[in-house]
Write a structure and sequence with these properties.
The chain is an alpha/beta fold. The protein contains 6 helices and 9 strands, in the order E-E-E-H-E-H-E-E-H-E-H-E-H-E-H. It has one domain: TIM Barrel (Alpha-Beta Barrel), CATH 3.20.20.70. The longest helix is centred in the last third of the chain and has 17 residues. Bound molecules: S-adenosylmethionine, the ligand Nc1nc2[nH]cc(C(=O)O)c2c(=O)[nH]1, iron/sulfur cluster (SF4) and magnesium ion (MG). Keywords: 4Fe-4S, Iron, Iron-sulfur, Lyase, Magnesium, Metal-binding, Queuosine biosynthesis, S-adenosyl-L-methionine.
Amino acid sequence: MSADRRIRVSEIFGPTIQGEGVLIGLPTVFVRTGGCDYRCSWCDTLHAVDSEYRDQWTPMTVEEIWAEVLSLSGGRPLTVSLSGGNPAIQPLGPLIERGHAEGYRFALETQGSVAKDWFADLDTLVLSPKPPSSGMETDWALFEDCLASAAGGPDVALKIVVFDERDYRYAREASARYPDLPVYLQPGNHTPPPADDDDARIDIDGIMERMLWLVGKVTEDRWFEARVLPQLHVLLWGNRRGV
Ligand SMILES: C[S@@+](CC[C@H](N)C(=O)[O-])C[C@H]1O[C@@H](n2cnc3c(N)ncnc32)[C@H](O)[C@@H]1O
Ligand SMILES: Nc1nc2[nH]cc(C(=O)O)c2c(=O)[nH]1
Ligand code: SF4
Ligand SMILES: [Mg+2]
């Protein structure tokens, strides 16, 4: 396989439970790719984003990744979650095809800045546009391209991280643009891990406070379509990597 067909992998781990959004609680193997076109101020996965960590990312063939997924899952089909970094910048189509042939399912998490035609082959697409507190600006035309690429294929859901009032307003506006998409609100973790450290310490009380505030906002506004969920893996394991 030529080098450009290889997939840049930061880590493969599991099975664990999906900690976020529409598939929360579901046993999952994660394939985390390296590299991202965004730099969110509060990113909890900088080791898969910052090119300073590039030497920890391994270019792998589909067969190499697949052998690892098979070994972790004991050959029993489950959901593989493709995350990153931005997994949309990697050539993941052939991996999805490989796994589907053996009955595995694929979910992908992306910010919605890069569209690929293989989005249509996914089982679940989680689009996570970034609110103002991230420091990023959403290009809604590119976001629309992602939706168009997925048309007729996967279940699609919105998952929006909320730190403050402005983020909440952004989430309402984003959801109003796409009233047919289920929307998940996730309280921000304001103590994300340092990129080069596996320090799992975390301010759970602060996260719970933000979560209660968010529940209050949604119910006061009678926004009855929204679902508010914590990052379950963060509640269970703090900032630990590989869970
Ligand atoms: C690390 S990102 C990787 C996938 C893709 N780049 C994205 O942002 O959707 C996975 C999810 O974690 C969320 N996330 C990142 N940092 C977070 C933080 N500090 N608190 C809560 N959620 C966070 C992102 O918004 C995204 O929904
Ligand atoms: N258990 C678990 N659930 C997750 N959901 C999204 C994750 C991510 O970092 O993309 C993640 C993760 O790293 N672990
Ligand atoms: S888009 Fe995702 S991976 Fe990239 S910096 Fe933002 S949260 Fe991190
Ligand atoms: Mg994470």
